[in-house]
Design brief:
Layout lengths: L9 H19 L7 H16 L5 E6 L15 E2 L6 E10 L1 H5 L6 E8 L10 E7 L13 H11 L8 E5 L5 H9 L3 E5 L3 H6 L10 E7 H13 L3 E7 L3 H9 L9 E2 H4 L4 E7 L10 E3 L2 E10 L4 E10 L1
Parallel strand pairs: 1-3, 6-7, 6-8
Antiparallel strand pairs: 1-2, 3-4, 4-11, 5-8, 5-9, 9-10, 11-13, 12-13, 13-14
Length: 318
């Protein structure tokens, strides 16, 4: 393992885990209530409250949106006690608002932290992305045609394209990609939302996903990248700026090359902690269960410097 400067400590790891757990629990009470706004607000309120208890000088770099569209956990908001390490924070308090509102699988509470300037400050826009569980260069690349990526990956895994599974958001914009994958006889795992968890399904063979690709949220891409880094997976992303407003906002954030393809190391560097706690059970983790005065939840947690990458079960008093 290469030397990681400014290592985040275990105490912080436990506190970030608690932030994700408490946000998940807050949102859980709105599961199946057909009210995604309230489910999201509950997670946001809880996450912000818990983050403000931590001894840190934290700054949101991936959040609920710009200041004018998000009253809390907005990009640039400063959190913590203003004592302790300077940290970049990326959050998606409720990934899968529709999942929670309709009691469907896969709702998560997600957070990632890194040292200041080590986590990409991404605007609220779309990103074309791809992830696979390998580190060898030039096997899979965002700039390659679908066919080349699939054939290269099949050859690398010593198998046939029809034995590969690709995960992609089920959206009209992906029709050409999906049609191409069908021609290649690749197995498809189509997801309706939740492309943080979708990208992470490549991390372990038990999920049965070989490649994640397609256009999804830029912030979600950065969050996924922070976990994929701990798994030594390959991730690439390219932001898609369609309007002049998007381009101006990107320039204000320091993004000069609007067509740049970002490698994983350009999105996340140094040490990082990532937590994704299940609200409703999905492919990645189980959802919350409440028994008497206690609740049980599962969290995928990674902490790069400790080479920690596992699913942990937590039982706490409500």
């Amino acid at each position: 393992m290469s030397l990681i400067i400014n290592i985040l400590d275990v105490t912080l790891e436990k506190k970030i885990l608690n932030v994700a757990i408490r946000a998940a629990l807050a949102s859980f009470y709105f599961v199946g209530k057909k009210d995604k706004v309230s489910a999201d607000k509950a997670a946001v309120d809880s996450m912000r409250s818990e983050l403000n208890k931590i001894d840190m000088k934290g700054k949101i770099v991936i959040g609920e949106g710009e200041l004018d569209e998000a009253p809390m956990l907005y990009i640039g908001e400063e959190l913590g006690t203003n004592n302790g390490p300077e940290l970049d924070i990326a959050v998606d308090p409720l990934e899968g608002t529709n999942f929670a509102a309709n009691n469907l699988p896969g709702a998560l509470s997600v957070i990632s932290v890194a040292n200041k300037n080590n986590l990409f400050n991404a605007p609220e826009t779309y990103m074309d992305k791809i992830s696979v569980n390998l580190t060898d260069p030039n096997i899979v690349d965002l700039d390659y045609p679908i066919k080349k990526n699939i054939f290269n990956l099949a050859e690398y895994k010593n198998t046939k394209p029809e034995n590969l599974t690709a995960c992609i958001l089920d959206r009209p914009r992906h029709k050409e990609i999906i049609d191409e994958l069908k021609k290649l006889k690749v197995k498809l795992k189509l997801i309706t939302d939740g492309d943080v968890s979708g990208a992470l399904l490549v991390t372990d063979e038990k999920y049965g996903v070989d490649i994640f690709l397609g256009i999804g949220g830029g912030p979600e891409g950065v969050l996924a990248a922070s976990a994929l880094d701990a798994f030594n997976c390959n991730f690439q992303g390219r932001f898609l700026f369609k309007t002049e407003k998007d381009k101006d906002r990107a320039n204000m954030m320091g993004i000069k090359d609007l067509e740049k393809k970002y490698e994983l190391s350009e999105i996340i560097s140094g040490d990082s902690i990532f937590c994704a706690t299940g609200i409703t059970s999905g492919d990645l983790v189980k959802g919350i269960e409440i028994k008497d005065n206690e609740f049980i939840c599962e969290t995928l947690i990674t902490h790069k410097s400790r080479e920690l990458k596992k699913i942990i079960t937590t039982k706490q008093k409500i």
